[in-house]
């Protein structure tokens, strides 16, 4: 499994920047239909990922949106499977109206129907220090 460790650092990101109206973004919090004033997680879910050798491992597919001013963000993830856990962090810069998605791959967490994985995630906006 050690040969797969570099894959942990591989994260396929795609960025769709366009003239989208931020008001058209859905608010999944259930609290309000107003446009959020900071970056948000649109979706995050565990997905199987097929490795080159044919094995299937767990990954977390995440989509983030930023309807507000450009911001540096970090998305912290902990994947738990049985008595094992793995942590990963995605750090990136998001421009206004950016929607970014990607997969966080955990090559040591093999897909197992008898021992399913779960995860928790937290999005943090990095605040700049005043000059």
What can you see in these coordinates?
The chain is elongated. The model is unreliable at 1-31 (pLDDT under 50). It has 131 residues and is mainly beta. The protein has one helix at 5-8; strands at residues 13-17, 40-50, 56-66, 71-81, 84-94, 98-110, 118-126. It starts with a helix and ends in a 5-residue tail after the last strand.
Keywords:
three-stranded antiparallel beta sheet; mainly beta; 7 strands; 131 residues; disordered N terminus; single chain
Outline: elongated
Number of separate helices: 1
Order of helices and strands: HEEEEEEE
Low-confidence stretches: 1-31
Give the amount of beta strand, in percent: over 45%
The helicity comes to under 10%
Counting DSSP E segments of at least 2 residues, the number of strands comes to 7
**Radius of gyration, Cα only, in angstroms?**
16 Å
Query: Structural class of the secondary structure composition?
Result: mainly beta
The biggest sheet amounts to:
4 strands, antiparallel
Question: What's the arrangement of strands in the largest beta sheet?
Answer: 1-6-3-2
Provide a compact summary of the structure.
The protein is mostly beta strands. The chain contains one helix and seven strands.
Sequence-ordered SSE layout with sheet pairings:
Layout: H1 5-8, E1 13-17, E2 40-50, E3 56-66, E4 71-81, E5 84-94, E6 98-110, E7 118-126
Antiparallel strand pairs: 1-6, 2-3, 3-6, 4-5, 4-7
